[in-house]
From TrEMBL, chains A, B:
Name of the gene: mhqR_4
Keyword Ribonucleoprotein: no
Keywords for the protein's UniProt record, in alphabetical order: DNA-binding, Transcription, Transcription regulation
Record region (Disordered): 169-190
HTH marR-type domain span: 27-160
GO MF entry, a single one: DNA-binding transcription factor activity
Pfam families membership: MarR (PF01047)
Protein name as catalogued: HTH-type transcriptional regulator MhqR
TM spans (from-to): none
PANTHER family: MARR FAMILY REGULATORY PROTEIN, TRANSCRIPTIONAL REGULATOR, MARR FAMILY
InterPro entries: HTH_MarR-typ, MarR/SlyA-like, Tscrpt_reg_MarR-type_CS, WH-like_DNA-bd_sf, WH_DNA-bd_sf
Amino acid sequence: MPGDRSITEAERLAEAKLGGIPIRREQMAAVANIYRAASAVRQHLENSVLRSSDLTWTAFVVLWVVWVWGESETRHVAEEAGISKGTLTGVARTLESRGLLRRIGHPTDGRLVLLSLTDKGEDFMQRVFPAFNEEEAFVTAQLSSAECRGLAEGLRRVVLQVEEHGEERRRALLDGAEPAPRRSGRRPRA
Amino acid sequence: MPGDRSITEAERLAEAKLGGIPIRREQMAAVANIYRAASAVRQHLENSVLRSSDLTWTAFVVLWVVWVWGESETRHVAEEAGISKGTLTGVARTLESRGLLRRIGHPTDGRLVLLSLTDKGEDFMQRVFPAFNEEEAFVTAQLSSAECRGLAEGLRRVVLQVEEHGEERRRALLDGAEPAPRRSGRRPRA
DNA sequence: GTCCGATCATTTGGAACCAAATTCTATGGC
DNA sequence: GCCATAGAATTTGGTTCCAAATGATCGGAC
């Protein structure tokens, strides 16, 4: 079991390594565990309900977003699902080819594309979501309902902080400096 | 600001959509927010400190793991970083080519490869980690230290639950059924 | 009516990523 | 000593994802 030992061990070691430097330990632990938990949950769900439905995590999230929000413009779906618009184009095409999703042009604005579930897609979610939710309950089984609420609330505040002040913060950090290009992805033309 | 509105709105809509079906709302909200927070945090860090250091999230995590654990065997690093061994091979090679990481064979067991930071890598982490930690503090700014501890503890329990009971659970769910082939990755030969 | 900037979705190019296959090394029987 | 088995990292083949570039369309200004 690498479990408990490795998590807390890692935190202890990190502190030791930083003996001289003053660091924010609680915040470091919180962030590290957010990412670790997200990976664990995603992997568990991919290997249980999603695998047997032959759906990737991202595809399921997209489906879920359209399901709960109803017919939506793609850019909203991408934002809500936490993926880029380019990725959504591919995922939506896959889901469309599987008959779960419908893509129709906006009636008045020709630039927009609207996504909605087909009847098959609706049936699929009615059938699969309860199984998905069952696994959500499984991974949080060590927490009471109240603790789940507390956890969700704490995480919500993290999301809010980034959504509301993230851009401003990044601007302040760079402070006039170039935005620094990414290494991967299509190269700038010039 | 899609912020506050969209998160709680989404949760409300999901509940409405599931009017008839009994679901575990708290658990659903907890899981949804884990993933949402992880994406937000990763994106913020990639676009601030990591971008200007020309490092991907994964590369930084690998560097961090080797930094805090010291010289380590690759399979342990992969596990700790949450990536496959194959991915680590590529990432390690990139980091080696940039002079931050060293790869040396194990002195007695020729099958093993050990990773450690170069002096340049150590300097790099000494310089960049404080900035990274500063952003960890930023994203959790809406939480007190005690709340961070509570958050980390709750997430730790989720990770533990999956690590300790996940495999068993997945086996019980399939219950004899085929493991269901994955869609991506190299195909089996036969 | 036609340019022109803004705002979409889509295409494109490259890296990240995984799991199977492969290759290399160690070790235990014989 | 030799071979089979096991266990390690790496290679390979494939998908997924992002960000820049592109192409389409809208809405004004003139």
